[in-house]
Amino acid sequence: MQGFSSLARNSIYLEEAPCGSIYGYVVNINGDPVENARLKLRGLRKVKHIKDRAVSDKDGFFEFSKCLDAGKYVITINKRRHRPAQKTVVIEEGEEKDIGEIVLKRKSTKMKMLSEEEAE
Q1: Count of CB atoms within 10 A of residue 95's CB?
Q2: 2.40.110.10, 2.102.10.10, 2.60.370.10, 2.60.40.10: which CATH number matches 20-103?
Q3: Which of 20, 39, 52, 69 could lock onto 91 through a cystine, CB 3.0 to 4.6 A?
Q4: Nearest to 37 by CA among 25, 48, 45
Q5: End-to-end CA distance of the chain, in Å?
Q6: Rounded to 10 degrees, what is the CA torsion of 112, 113, 117, 120?
Q7: What does the alpha-carbon distance between residue 18 and residue 31 come to, in Å, rounded to a whole number?
Q8: β-pair partners for 39
């Protein structure tokens, strides 16, 4: 077959990188679950393009399961009437990281009482 050229076949293989995740629990100082805490995940350095959000459930459980790359992350936790908390987490490629418990402390509702001398 003259004039017919054979086509070179190139195969492209896509290798799926293993996805990482981070999960844990939000609790109060007594170890009781904190429901509806808002959590923000922000990547640092080479993974700073990654951001995610989560909310703790009735058991205080949360999970960031968006396909996370290996790297360093900061989790910020907020809940009304509680002090904000932060935790830095490093995960390896494909790691499912259990960070255990993050303790949220209630904001102090006690008002400083002035002594009679201070009030005068």
Answers
A1: 16
A2: 2.60.40.10
A3: 20
A4: 25
A5: 111
A6: 90
A7: 33
A8: 54, 77
C-alpha–C-alpha distance, residues 99 and 76, integer Å: 13
pLDDT digits (tens, 9 = 90+) for 4-49: 555 556 666 656 668 899 999 999 999 999 999 999 999 998 888 8
User: What are the structural domain ranges in the chain?
Assistant: 20-103
| Contact of 26 with 106, CB cutoff 8 Å | no
Contact 114, 74 (CB under 8 A): no
pTM score of the predicted model = 0.75
